[in-house]
Amino acid sequence: MMQEVYEWLVAYGWVVWLVLFLGLAAIETLTLDLFFAMLSVGALAAMLAAILSAPLFLQVVVFSVVALLMIILVRPVALKHLKAGTRETRSNIERLIGEAAVTLEPVGSRTGTVKIGGDTWTARSGDGSLLPAGEAVSVIRIEGATAVEPLRPAGGAAGPFGQDGGLTGR
Question: Per the confidence metrics, is the pTM higher than 0.70?
């Protein structure tokens, strides 16, 4: 019985690797962390070894080595490139971070509005300082659908208030 299973694996091992490849690729579509994609590449390499009539133990070695190399060498580089998208690939909210804005009314730690690229947004100053109307600022962080928080003067200058948010020199 075991001899028949082994003979079938030798004859049709590539089918097993193909099913494993497709299964791991399907799992990758659910997880999206590139781990199962690297394993599926290993299964693809083992399938190629099976097609070339490599013994079963060598197919398993090929799968293990290729999958391990993909996880160690390729996955970190791929994740870095996927997470560090270019300005053109960032979402609408992400595109606003770093953009210049102008305060339309005084912006404090709880209230205020700014104009960012022609749109009006509610805003808060993260450090609690009061930014007067007409102040040029840049967006540091977006929280929620409409809140812009905190703001800092454009160019990193302290503005009319000191770095600590209070009046200086008095």
Answer: no
